[in-house]
């Protein structure tokens, strides 16, 4: 017998035109109660029987991402400003269907990674371009997916937010919340239709800004009756219609596609539209191929992605943080699970672009 563990927090207003996300499933036996199922997700994974991975890993893998899955990342006040100024999706995130019922302040605090928030909650919402962009933060190697065991071993003094359990579930006393991380903890290109939203104290969801890829800008979506939601963020000019993303930022990942044998910057509007990135409508041709291009490098023997370049310095993000690599690089935890360090360009080895190709 199989039970659906996600039904209690599934959105009540699911859109009929879209297929529902795969639910979280677990085998139910007379000896396995709901409490025991939850308890197994809150204990770090350990190497199990020789016959296969731990049962909790099998259960966790039933919650999957498909092209077009609605994703969400809860943000602190200062992170809202960072995304308006050009930050890209990264690190820990969740399927919208798994957290749609969470609105209480303590529940939202859990998903911001412990960076703090006021009475108003904020979030980044987007649609997944491809399942290859996401990993489950297991502490064991399960199938062909990598292990994030190092995150579970980092001392509380060197991390931000709640611990990483390695089970693929967020630490919670009351909920089963499947966690995801962006692959290698790298940035993801911002898809069309991405939005910044606020949750009022009564749980009302308000769309604040919508991302326009062609203009590399956020356009304001809220009316004057919601201005008070941003009153606590002094760095946001409330009367500004567009907050431009710097066009010359040398950081993060990009999408590239081919049209008639030529490569172009590309835009993703999942689940079905992938085209050349162009301001002129007549030039927005559908691409024949699509790939996410991310720059990697090695510093002091540790593999990283290049999160930014300023002058003769690289801002590097660890792909697999662990106590040894964090210490060796002097890396700082900038948010839950994300560790970055600055390195002189001359010390950085083998900077190169790596393409993750999608099947269209």
Question: Would you give an account of this structure?
Answer:
This protein is mainly beta. Among the domains are: 254-293, no CATH class; 295-358, SH3 type barrels, CATH 2.30.30. 12% of the residues lie in helices and 31% in strands. It is built from seven helices and 20 strands. The protein has helices at 34-41, 55-60, 77-84, 96-99, 105-111, 149-153, 323-329, and strands at residues 2-4, 25-27, 70-75, 92-95, 121-127, 134-135, 180-182, 195-199, 205-212, 217-220, 242-244, 254-259, 262-269, 273-276, 289-299, 302-310, 313-318, 332-335, 338-344, 349-358. It has a nine-stranded antiparallel beta sheet with strand order 6-7-4-3-5-8-9-10-11. Strands 12, 13, 14, 15, 16, 17, 18, 19 and 20 form a nine-stranded antiparallel beta sheet that branches. The longest helix has 8 residues, at 34-41. The chain is globular, with a radius of gyration of 20 Å. The two termini are 36 Å apart. Mean pLDDT is 86; it is low at 1-16.
What's the quick description here?
The protein is mainly beta.
């Amino acid at each position: 017998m199989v039970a659906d563990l996600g039904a209690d927090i599934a959105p009540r207003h699911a859109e009929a035109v879209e297929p529902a996300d795969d639910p979280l499933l677990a085998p139910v036996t007379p000896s396995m109660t709901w409490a025991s199922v939850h308890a197994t997700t809150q204990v770090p994974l350990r190497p199990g029987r020789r016959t296969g991975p731990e049962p909790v890993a099998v259960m966790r893998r039933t919650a999957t991402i498909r092209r077009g899955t609605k994703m969400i990342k809860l943000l602190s006040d200062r992170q809202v400003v960072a995304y308006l100024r050009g930050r890209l999706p990264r690190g820990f995130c969740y399927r919208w269907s798994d957290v749609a019922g969470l609105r209480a302040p303590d529940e939202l605090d859990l998903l911001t990674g412990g960076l703090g928030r006021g009475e108003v909650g904020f979030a980044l919402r987007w649609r997944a371009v491809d399942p290859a962009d996401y990993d489950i933060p297991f502490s064991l190697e399960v199938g062909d997916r990598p292990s994030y065991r190092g995150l579970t071993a980092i001392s509380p003094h060197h991390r931000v937010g709640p611990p990483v359990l390695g089970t693929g579930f967020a630490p919670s006393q009351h909920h089963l919340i499947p966690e995801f991380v962006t692959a290698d903890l790298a940035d993801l290109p911002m898809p069309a239709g991405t939005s910044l939203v606020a949750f009022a104290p009564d749980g009302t969801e308000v769309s604040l800004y919508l991302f326009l890829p062609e203009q590399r800008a956020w356009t304001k979506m809220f009316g004057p009756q919601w201005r008070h939601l941003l009153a606590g963020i002094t760095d946001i000019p409330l009367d500004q219609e567009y907050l431009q993303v710097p066009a010359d930022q040398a950081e993060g990942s990009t999408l590239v596609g081919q049209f008639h044998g030529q490569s172009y910057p590309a835009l993703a509007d999942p689940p079905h539209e992938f085209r050349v990135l162009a301001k002129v409508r007549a030039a927005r041709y559908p691409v024949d191929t699509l790939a996410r291009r991310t720059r990697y490098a090695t510093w002091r023997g540790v593999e990283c992605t290049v999160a930014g370049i300023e002058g003769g310095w690289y801002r590097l993000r660890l792909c697999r943080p662990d106590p040894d690599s964090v210490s060796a690089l002097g890396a700082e935890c900038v948010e839950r699970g994300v560790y970055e360090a600055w390195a002189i360009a001359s010390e950085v080895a083998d900077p190169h672009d790596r393409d993750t190709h999608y099947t269209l």
